[in-house]
Amino acid sequence: MPRPLKIYFAGDLFDAKDLGGNLMLAKAIEERSSRRYQVLLPQDGESEVVTRSSRSIRDADFRLLFSCDLIVANFDGCDLDSGTVVEFCFAKMLDIPALLVRTDFRNAGDGELPDGEPWNLMCSHYPRTEVLHLNAMLCYHRFKTADTALFLNNFYNFIAQEICAKLDKVTSLPSWLKIAGLPSAYLTAQKAIGAEIFSDGELQTLIENKAASGLY
Question: Do 69 and 97 touch, CB atoms closer than 8 A?
């Protein structure tokens, strides 16, 4: 039986709605995929950063991102979260399959262009990247019921179902980065962020896990 594919869940984690919503959606994705996907939330690693500085927290997030097989990036908001965009860009540098999820029904960015999305065009048109648009307000009214627990279950399960379908699609797309190129790519990524976040042994294990994922 293949191991679960690990997902880096990129997005806002700054308030109660973010933290609770991220957790509920992560659990729904795991359950909906029958554990094919394992969602790792950066917010869960915050307390594990011993020396709390902007640098140490940033490096911990990069370490988690580089270790994951996939990235799901929350692209809600009139302006995208800058940290999420940086994480997405590094994921593309390493040819990590990506899913951009937007549940925000507001139009923004360059969405008026024929091939545009409701965000800045520099975040669009990357290889091994799928986009999922859902109107959260329509979903809310579709599943709204007096039973709040039932509503939340149906609401997040529906979103998770749509996400899993897109993840199944993006994981089937061919990689431009071959296994032989993985060591060089990850060494370059470490140099790009100016931090050796993996020891030589850890990096070797990471490369072996990436090769065994079947995604390259």
Answer: yes
